[in-house]
Amino acid sequence: MENKNTGRDLKQWHFDKGEQFDETIFNDLIHGLNTQMKMLPKAGLIAIIVWGFIFAVSQLCSSFIGGVIGHTMALILIFTSILSFPISMNIALGKANKIIRFSMTKLGINNNDIAVARKHLKNGTYAWQPKN
Question: Which of 15, 102, 123, 132 is most exposed, with the fewest beta carbons within 10 Å of its own?
C-alpha cells in the first residue's frame, strides 16, 4: 500500500525559509491543512448536493414551463449550478481556508512553496538540514 504524505507530515525543514518560521504560526498552518483534508469529502458532498438540486430545478423549469422562457431559465440554472460547485466548496472549507491563508501570509510563503515542500516530503529530502 502506498504511503500517503499529509499536511501533518510537513516539517519546517521541508520549506526553503523554514528556519525563519514562527513555530506557533507554522503549527496553525499544519492544523489548517489537516482540517481542510478532513473536511474535503464532506464539502464535496455538500457541493454535489447543491449542484444536483439546482440541476433538478432547471430540468423542472424546462419540462413544466417549457417554451423559450422555460428553456432559458433552465440554461441560466445550469450555468448557476456550474458556478455553485466552487462556491459551495469555499463556503464549506471557509474556516480552514482562512487559517491557511493567514498562516501563509504571516510565514511569507505561497502555494508554490507548499508544493516544493510536499515534493521534499515525498522524496525524503530537506530544503535545509535541521539542527539537533
Answer: 132
Read off the pLDDT band of 12 (50, 70, 90): confident
Locate all alpha helices (DSSP H) within 1-132, ordered by sequence: 23-60, 67-92, 94-107, 111-123
Residues 6+ apart with CB under 8 A from 3: none
- Residues in CB range of 60: below 8 A, 6 or more apart: none
Residue 124 is placed in which grid cell? 525524503
Instruction: Give domain limits for the chain.
Output: 24-122
Which grid coordinates are listed for 36? 481542510
Grid cell listed for 113: 512553496
In sequence order, the 6+-apart residues with CB closer than 8 A to the CB of 7 are 30, 33, 34, 36, 37
Ramachandran sector of residue 21 (left: φ over 0; alpha: ψ -120 to 50; beta: rest) = beta
Nearest Cα neighbor of 76 from 88, 61, 64, 95 is 61
